[in-house]
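Need residues for this backbone.
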């Protein structure tokens, strides 16, 4: 997702921005984002001089607080992205943003319904597709599936993509 997002959104040219929603707080992930030119949204607001027209790669460290869940905060960032327009939203970890496994939430649902019309795109990352609402997988223009090893994930994906074959075969076939 990092390579794809950075290939689509140049660091400091053009009108588009990439907003990376980091919902995990993994220090290696945060360092990787910095290595690819992403800056923390709080640094962006505070430290970017006015003479710099724009910095296009911004990450949002979203953590649980007493006043707001990760999901609620993420849904608000998605709403703000649609309002700004010309934003590629990357959600890492997709299921942290969802109210539940059957519901994408109002703002993520709106992004899927009207994102193209508002020039707002999305890349959703997950290692657990069984937790992702069917709408998000079936409405996507592209889905990239890697090596699924958890049987419920394999079963779920086969309901959507009957031809999915796990590299190396089904771990539960024996």
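Answer:
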């Amino acid at each position: 997702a990092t390579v794809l997002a950075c290939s689509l959104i140049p660091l400091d040219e053009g009108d588009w921005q990439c907003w990376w929603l980091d919902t995990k707080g993994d220090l290696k992930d945060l360092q990787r984002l910095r290595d690819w030119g992403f800056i923390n949204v709080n640094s962006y607001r505070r430290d970017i001089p006015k003479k710099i027209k724009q910095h296009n790669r911004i990450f949002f460290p979203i953590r649980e607080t007493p006043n707001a869940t990760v999901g609620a905060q993420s849904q608000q960032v998605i709403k703000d992205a649609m309002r700004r327009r010309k934003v590629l939203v990357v959600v890492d970890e997709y299921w942290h943003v969802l109210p539940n496994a059957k519901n994408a939430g109002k703002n993520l649902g709106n992004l899927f319904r009207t994102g193209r019309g508002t020039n707002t795109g999305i890349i959703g990352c997950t290692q657990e597709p069984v937790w992702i609402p069917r709408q998000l997988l079936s409405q996507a223009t592209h889905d990239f599936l890697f090596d699924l090893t958890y049987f419920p994930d394999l079963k779920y994906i086969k309901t959507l993509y009957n031809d999915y074959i796990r590299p190396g075969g089904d771990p539960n076939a024996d």
